[in-house]
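Give me structure tokens for this 76-residue protein.
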Amino acid sequence: MYIKPCPEKIRAARRKQGLSAYALAMKAGLDKKAIYRIESKESLRTHSLRAQAIADALGCPVEELFDAPGKKGKTA
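Here you go.
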């Protein structure tokens, strides 16, 4: 399953912890290009497992950093 990242929230959480994009990538077990692509809005969606790795590395819930599928456009 793929979900939409919130680049600004991811960048803010990373910076709040004093991590570089490279350090976050290493902590999450990802390539540094993956973090760059997400933060630069080059990657419009990412796999849920990658999202979970990023969230875990930042100590945040996935929902705080990524939009759930189908979140936009739903009405109550």
